[in-house]
């Protein structure tokens, strides 16, 4: 386990320990492997914001926010609209999640798309903000979120992003805006009252999924600004009778355990990054599809049958027979069947392969009828997958993958991280100039050397947007 020398803890109250960590942690103490995770989160979300700029609902949300007007405090990424910070965070957070290519933690907590948009808005509110300050604030937010994460059974259908993401984003914004420990605790207590969201949004393939991400970032900015004005939140939001440990933890977790090791034991190490632009639980099936055709040197025409076996949660989420429905991109991303067919037929899995037109091209492909997905009660790992392929020639290829690519225990390579970022830049509907891409790449490699984070934000503005 990655550890860092402990901060002096002045009080036993878990809420105060949380507030102290947010305000007092020193960025120089970040272990190298933890800093690498932060760097990967920043790169991932910069990429997904740029790539998601014309997805469903984004133009409508932008138009709505522009009509609202308000004090110009922060900018929308890509478009450069000057908006109130709460609205910039809402827009950028929604855009970051629009392609569902962002980082996450089991059982579905999307931290980066909550924290980075809030941190960017807070950085512009702050004024001059160094890369080192930005990196530390991002880390603080990510670690608060990772610490408050719960199990699949405890969430029981609530969306971890909506429940936890707002705490993470609030912590990051509070750090950047230099709230006192008392103000930070109040902001987090206010955030507790904005903690919400349901996986029904995902099940129904609704645009609410991306809005929940924006809500987390936007609510964080609002909670921080209200705390600055003197509004108080419940001081016992973690350990109280009706606090987080009781309501969300279902009395199965102690508030003290949630904050144990803050700043010394790094839970953000368990963050997960996608190798392919589809549901996290479809990463393993996609990877095994590639492995199978490469191992046997075959094409789709050679395959008689594929049987995919998944644990219960994964089967319920991605095991359905593929139907494009009214939202073909999302339905394809959350279909193991489509992800396998796409990988085998096209020999790749890129953002462009989930475009509605690209999805339509594969709807009637005969391989769909030969891919069968099963629930296997003997498989218990969250991302575990068993794959069996048979060819018409009688060849059999079988493999069990205990951990999907990108999950803790099976991390992506640096080249795979860079490849995902480049896919986002290549897919961007409103492209960045080569010089902007170079600025971003340099900043990602050494964010602490950036004198003013506005240099990076400027590099995220396209010169090719519609009026």
TrEMBL record:
| Source organism superkingdom | Bacteria
Record domain MmgE/PrpD C-terminal: where: 276-427
Question: Which organism is the protein's source?
Answer: Corynebacterium comes
Where does the MmgE/PrpD N-terminal domain lie? 16-247
Q: What is this protein called?
A: MmgE/PrpD family protein
- One of its Pfam families is MmgE_PrpD_C
> Which molecular-function annotation in GO is an example for this chain?
lyase activity
Record family assignment: Belongs to the PrpD family.
List, alphabetically, the InterPro entries matched: MmgE/PrpD_sf (IPR036148), MmgE/PrpD_sf_1 (IPR042183), MmgE/PrpD_sf_2 (IPR042188), MmgE_PrpD (IPR005656), MmgE_PrpD_C (IPR045337), MmgE_PrpD_N (IPR045336)
């Amino acid at each position: 386990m990655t550890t860092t020398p402990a901060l002096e803890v002045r009080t036993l109250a878990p809420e105060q320990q949380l507030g102290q960590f947010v305000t007092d942690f020193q960025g120089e103490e970040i272990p190298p492997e933890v800093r690498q995770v932060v760097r990967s989160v920043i790169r991932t979300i910069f990429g997904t914001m740029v790539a998601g700029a014309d997805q469903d609902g984004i133009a409508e949300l932008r138009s709505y926010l522009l009509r609202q007007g308000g004090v110009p405090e922060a900018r929308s990424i890509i478009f450069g609209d000057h908006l109130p910070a709460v609205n910039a965070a809402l827009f950028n957070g929604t855009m970051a999640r629009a392609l569902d290519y962002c980082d996450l933690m089991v059982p579905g907590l999307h931290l980066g798309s909550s924290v980075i948009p809030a941190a960017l808005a807070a950085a512009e509110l702050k004024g001059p903000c160094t890369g080192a300050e930005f990196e530390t604030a991002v880390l603080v937010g990510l670690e608060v979120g990772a610490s408050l994460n719960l199990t699949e059974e405890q969430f029981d259908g609530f969306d971890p992003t909506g429940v936890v993401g707002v705490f993470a984003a609030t912590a990051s914004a509070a750090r950047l805006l230099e709230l006192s420990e008392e103000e930070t605790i109040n902001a987090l207590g206010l955030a507790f009252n904005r903690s919400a969201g349901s996986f029904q949004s995902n099940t129904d393939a609704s645009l609410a999924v991306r809005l929940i991400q924006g809500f987390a970032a936007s609510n964080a900015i609002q909670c921080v600004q209200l705390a600055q004005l003197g509004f108080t939140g419940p001081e016992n939001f973690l350990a109280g009778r009706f606090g987080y440990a009781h309501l969300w933890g279902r009395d199965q977790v102690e508030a003290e355990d949630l904050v144990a090791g803050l700043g010394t034991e790094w839970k953000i190490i368990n963050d997960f990054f996608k190798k392919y632009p589809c549901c996290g639980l479809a990463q393993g099936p996609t990877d095994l599809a590639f492995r199978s055709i490469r191992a046997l040197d075959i094409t789709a025409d050679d395959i008689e049958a594929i049987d995919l076996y998944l644990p219960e949660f994964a089967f319920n989420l991605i095991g359905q027979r593929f139907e494009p429905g009214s939202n073909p991109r999302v339905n394809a991303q959350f279909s193991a069947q489509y992800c396998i067919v796409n990988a085998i037929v096209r020999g790749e899995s890129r953002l462009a392969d989930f475009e509605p037109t690209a999805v339509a091209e594969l709807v009637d492909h005969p391989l769909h009828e030969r891919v069968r997905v099963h629930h296997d009660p003997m498989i218990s790992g969250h991302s575990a997958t068993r794959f069996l392929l048979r060819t018409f020639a009688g060849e059999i290829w079988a493999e069990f993958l205990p951990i999907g690519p990108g999950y803790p225990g099976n991390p992506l390579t640096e080249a795979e991280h860079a490849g995902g970022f480049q896919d986002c830049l290549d897919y961007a509907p409103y492209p960045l100039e080569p010089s902007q891409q170079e600025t971003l790449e340099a900043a990602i490699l050494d964010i602490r050397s950036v004198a003013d984070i506005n240099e990076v934000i400027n590099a995220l503005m396209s010169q090719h947007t519609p009026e």
